[in-house]
Amino acid sequence: MSGRQSQGGFTLPEIIAAMAILGTALLILMDAHYGALRLFADTSDEILMQSLLERAMGEAEMEVVAGKLEGSDNFGKRYPDYAFSFAAQQMGADEAAGAVESPLYGLSVTVTGPDGNVRTMEMLVFSPAS
Q1: Which residue ranges make up each domain of the chain?
Q2: Residue 98 above 80 pLDDT?
């Protein structure tokens, strides 16, 4: 038996190259995961704001029908850092011209979040009791 026998295994440069490839792949995956988490958080916040805006719109609409044309409130214990305000204005009311009062009101509702996020929605409300 002459000569050296070949032993199985990897050389140091092969191991370093494999670790570099693995590290790069992990960084790419971590960045994608972080981006997905950020997108999920932003979407969750947007959905919450939209949901609270729709709830505030419903409450404001009931207030307008009851005769209250402006006000503000919060969303209770579950969302203590969120608040809303509303203002309504009668549409087509021209008292100087002697026009008949319109049963339509322009309603604007604004929801404010804890981080200064503000969302506004406007709609027309029919109030036959006016």
Answers
A1: 12-126
A2: no
